Amino acid sequence: MENKKRSQLEFVVLMAALMSIVALSIDALLPALPEIGEYLSSVNETKNQKLITAIFLGLGFGQLVFGPLSDSFGRKPMVYFGFGVFIIASIICITTRNFEVMLLGRVLQGVGLSSPRTMSIAIVRDSYEGDHMAKILSVVTMTFILVPVIAPLLGQFLLGHFGWQSIFIVNLVFGSLVILWFWRRQPETLHKEYQKTFRLAIFKSGAITFFRIKSAVIYTLLSGLATGSFMVYLSTSQQIFQVQYDLGDMFPYIFASLAVTIGLATFLNSAIVMRFGMWNLVNIALLVFVINSLTYVIIFWSGVNPPIEILILFLMLQFASVAFLFGNYRALAMQPMGHIAGVGSALNGFISTIMAVPIANYIGSFVKTSVLPLFIGFLVTGIIGLVLFYSVKKPIRVKA
After folding, report:
1. Are 68 and 203 spatial neighbours (Cβ–Cβ below 8 Å)?
2. Among 76-80, 133-137, 292-296, 374-378, whose mean pLDDT is lowest?
3. Taken in order 259, 263, 269, 272, is the CA torsion positive or negative?
4. Which helix (H) or strand (E) holds 389?
5. DSSP SS3 for 46
6. What does the alpha-carbon distance between residue 357 and residue 341 come to, in Å, rounded to a whole number?
7. Among 118, 95, 119, 120, which residue's Cα sits nearest to residue 105?
8. Residues near 309 by Cβ (< 8 Å), separated by ≥ 6?
9. Taking a C-beta distance cutoff of 8 angstroms, is the pair 218, 392 a contact?
10. pLDDT one-digit tens code per residue, 100-137
11. Rg for the chain (alpha carbons), in Å?
12. DSSP-assigned letter for residue 149
């Protein structure tokens, strides 16, 4: 029993490490954008932000490639191939002095990193079912959420002491260590009965199967709404706290405290999901998300910003709710897709990512002098989420 627990702990940490390569590559670069822009003769801050969004473009579309391929060639080969692309892309980013080439390198980084991101989810689905799968995904997702708090600090340290190129080098070194660990300790998880002979038609047939599973589609859309809500906060938090509330010095601490709230809530979800079931926890979290948003919309309808303590309370409740939604949505979506876990994971990640970006951009565009649009945006996405959630039958619980 002790060896089994140790094995499961190592599995969870390894899957989280695979995911963290992605988060580290995105967020560690944030402090270095002005310096990289200057190095590439780009002084336009809006243009420089494309160095961040470009990697999401690669992440979204890369999943559509590696997911289907993994159903034929296995999960592990795809992780190796994807990391190989990431290495080449990182070298491009370090050596170029052309902004457009750097953008290409970032897109390719996203394509390469989409493999460990997608494969980690597929491997979890291969290995676990039902509420046990939700528990594992919650812990893995918690790491992905918490890394953005640490990554900018690491990026700032490396930038100040070794230059912006060192951020790419450290990401490569960290990723290489994780891949070495993955190679030595993680067995192939693709079940022989689910392995498919590679044909271009595999993705087509897998996609058709995916879109015929109503629950998988609905929970994927719900995942996109939850991810979009979180991205709204990420994209507007600096403006809200530093501009609207004039709390520049306190911003890192507020950001970190909210991230810790999300991490603790995700950990709580992993601890109780086996007892209460992921559907029941999602139901409660969605209701809290909507009621909290509605309350704040009504109270602060005038557009006058609430005191900072009241705003932080709102955000803590919202993102505690979102923490319960992240892993459970993905587990609920993946539950009926064991036979197409690769394609299913790819489509789930692609659709939720592509949905989240315009949601975040649209709601965020209204957050200028007041946080009221944030409350309204959360309320609308929450209500849509509730309607979609109740349109699917409650699944039969699968216990480990």
Report:
1. yes
2. 133-137
3. negative
4. helix 372-390
5. helix
6. 24
7. 95
8. none
9. yes
10. 999 999 999 999 999 998 888 888 878 887 777 777 77
11. 21
12. H
